[in-house]
Amino acid sequence: MEPSDPPRLSDETRWYTEHTALLITTVKWAFLGSAAGICVGGATRAFLWCLSASAEAVRRLPLGPVPFYALLPPAMMGCVWLIRRFAPTAKGHGTEAVISAVHQSSGRVDWRVAPVKLLATVLTLSFGGSVGKEGPCAQIGAAITSLFADLLRLSDEDRRRLVICGIGAGFAAVFGTPISGALFGIEVLALGRIDYEVLFPCLMAGIVAHLVCGVPPLAPPLHESIGVLRQSTLVPICLAFGAAFGLIALLLIETMRGLERGLRRFESRPYTLAFAGGSFLALFYGAAGTSFAGLGTGTIELALSGTARFALLAFAAKILATAVTLETGGSGGIVTPIFFIGATSGSALASLLGMPSGAFAAFGLVAVLAAAANTPIAAAVMGIELLPGPVGVYAALCAGTAFLIVGHRSVYASQKLAFSKSPGLEIPMDVPVGELGRRVRVRPGSLTDRALRLDPRAPWRRRPRRTPPGERDPE
After folding, report:
1. Is 444 a residue whose pLDDT tops 80?
2. Among 147, 226, 423, 457, which residue's beta carbon has the most beta carbons within 10 A?
């Protein structure tokens, strides 16, 4: 068969037909993205002001020798009452609910979630609950943009895109990182898939929200330089540290998962559970110190500056405090605790090995985020946004390594699976991470199969059976 002639420029259709449609789309989403950024940036700024004012008011309470966190048990009970009474979907760290809304209901979110989530998170953080501030901002952003879509009578697909813009704008505004924050809002929805349809409006919303909110980024003043390490040794060191950060993220995920499973029997008594969780945290802070209470941003800044030394297992204490807070009824985000865990673990490991602690604290911050949330691109861009010169490049290498090491797990159980991290595994696609269960199989004939030399009769070698629609998987 004769090969066909290559296409020529003269064969193309008239350009103005295509570009008229592109111009209309660009103007439309520039307007919608900017509007989302203005609304979410303003709401985030109001939330952060409320958080600061309430924390200051709690510290001024005339408690005498009694520490402020002693009031955490009734505060946790009040948080549970608020959420159960007014907005049940505001439970937990918030981002989970908006991921589920994007996948299951085209981003439709009840507007009441925004004020309830704000009040519940302020109540939790003011009295020492170990949570973050990004979850409420993502949920507030989703609620505002969903209401905006109702007012404009947008289609379900446009609503979904606008709500994703609201999520990204919330992250960008609260952390002061407009590009990586917007990318995080897109990438967190599915493991291994980025929705390019929302890339432009989400970036637009993130940049505008950042400008409106005005929060400065975590820009660590690196007093120590990684120049003391040769490039030939820095790459394997970053690979080793990335693997360690991946295991630390796995510890966080499994701790939350195990505690959630263990506390299921008490779901019918939420107020008792909240009181018990608050009491445990009050005793824990009394023994371990208040550095593990609340946001912990002061500790993160100390780690990034390289001016403080941390116990090797300080990150484990923060994992425990965060898991107990979220699983017993507290409300708030999880990314700020992830920053704490990554920064303190990186600093402690670097100090133990005689390396620059500030730089490796920054590496840990972005790497644990990449692994725990399955967002390697957003984390890598964050490292480049925050760190000077070539330092961000090595942070990105740590992030990519940690992302692979953690496996197909995430702190966000509603995150969809879009690819397998290893060609040696068979992973069902387009299912939530939390429903993966035992359906991970070794691919027959793969290098992994030959290396492990598994028994052909072993149950994990069998292909997962197809579950008919409407029938629940027995596993």
Report:
1. no
2. 226
Domain 18-213: give its CATH architecture: Orthogonal Bundle (1.10)
Contact 273, 266 (CB under 8 A): yes
Q: What pTM value is reported for the model?
A: 0.88
List CB contacts of 145: < 8 A, sequence separation 6 or more.
Answer: 36, 39, 40, 107, 162, 163, 165, 166
How confident is the model over 82-124, as pLDDT tens digits?
988 887 766 666 677 788 888 888 888 877 777 888 889 999 9
| Phi, psi dihedral angles at 455 (to 5 degrees) | -65, 125
Interior/surface letters 15-27, b for 16+ CB within 10 angstroms, e for the rest: eeeeeeeeeeeee
Which two three-digit tokens encode residue 132?
């973050």
Question: Which residues have C-beta within 8 Å of that of residue 3, sequence separation ≥ 6?
Answer: none
Cβ neighbors of 385 (< 8 A, separation 6 or more) are 177, 179, 180, 217, 392
Q: Which amino acid is at 454?
A: L
CATH 1.10.3080.10 intervals, the chain: 18-213, 226-405
Using DSSP's 3-state secondary structure scheme, residue 193 falls into: coil
Measured over the CA atoms of residue 148, residue 153, residue 159 and residue 162, the dihedral's sign is negative
CATH for 226-405 (1.10.1740.10, 3.30.750.24, 3.30.56.70, 1.10.3080.10): 1.10.3080.10
Q: In this structure, what are the phi and psi dihedrals at residue 442, rounded to the nearest 5 degrees?
A: -75, 130
298 vs 453: CA distance, rounded Å: 50
C-alpha of 152 from chain center = 30
Give the C-alpha separation, 104 to 133, whole Å: 25
Q: Could you give the angle at the alpha carbon of 182 between the alpha carbons of 304 and 92, nearest 5°?
A: 75
Residue 281 and residue 273: Cα distance in Å, rounded? 12
CB 448 within 8 A of CB 130: no
pLDDT of amino acid 233: 82
